[in-house]
Design a protein that fits this description.
The chain is α+β, with helices and mostly antiparallel strands. The chain is built from 8 helices and 6 strands, in the order ββββαββααααααα. The longest helix has 47 residues. It starts with 17 loop residues before the first strand and ends with a helix.
């Protein structure tokens, strides 16, 4: 039976056994069992996990860093599992072997953390929702101040200030309630609701040309909303 080289311990792993996922079919040099899905190299020869006194351990695949770390903390005996990557010419970590009881304790710790994270997410969501309502109120109030005749200040504010939307209300200027950002949000609403802008785009008119054509209408509505506290009936539609 060909002798095997002992693989180096993966970077960052603590001292302990290294177990190999072989690329070729191997038999245990001691009990002759095989083919082996996992083996340990001792004195250059493959040993099955039972013969290497690791058969009582369970395999935990890589992927969950917290669970892996805690499983190793909870296990008196643990081993790193590696497999040789021919293309890269090196052994790569595939997971760990840990004690079943240690894995169960680690899973319980992670579940407790998951519940704590869930409660924190709920609290954070409620806080963000309250912040969003306050910001939308402030944005709508600023629209009302700049455009007292605007009949849909709240709807414009809600649309412009959706979290994560990238709209003007969520820009730095929008969060600062700058006059330019507020005016841009109102103008965008007028463009889509009170002019044939969308129809022009659908008919194939280029965006910049469509904007040029409807610019006088947008400015007329904005001017009237600035001056007319009663609103404009046609714009309300």
């Amino acid at each position: 039976m060909a002798r095997l080289a002992t693989p180096p311990s993966p970077a960052g792993s603590r001292t302990g056994p290294v177990v190999i996922q072989p690329l070729r079919r191997r038999q245990c040099a001691e009990c002759r069992g095989g083919p082996l899905s996992l083996l340990v190299v001792e004195d250059g020869m493959p040993r099955c996990l039972d013969c290497a006194d690791l058969g009582h351990l369970v395999f935990l695949p890589r992927g969950d860093t917290a669970l892996t770390r805690r499983s190793r903390e909870e296990s008196t005996l643990a081993a790193v599992v590696v497999r040789f990557n021919r293309r890269k010419g090196r052994y790569e970590r595939q997971g760990v072997l840990v004690e079943e009881a240690g894995l169960a304790r680690a899973e319980a710790r992670c579940l407790a953390d998951a519940e704590a994270r869930r409660r924190r997410r709920v609290r954070d969501a409620a806080r963000r929702a309250a912040e969003d309502v306050r910001f939308t109120d402030a944005f709508a109030a600023e629209i009302g101040r700049l455009f007292p005749g605007c009949p849909r200040a709240r709807a414009i504010a809600e649309h412009a200030s959706v979290r994560g939307s990238g709209r003007v209300g969520r820009s730095a200027a929008g969060r600062a309630l700058s006059e330019g950002a507020v005016t841009s949000a109102v103008a965008a609403s007028v463009r889509h609701v009170d002019t044939p802008y969308d129809q022009l785009l659908m008919s194939g008119v280029a965006r910049h040309e469509a904007r040029r054509r409807i610019a006088p209408s947008v400015e007329a509505v904005l001017r009237q909303w600035r001056e007319d506290e009663a609103g404009v009936a046609s714009a309300a539609g």
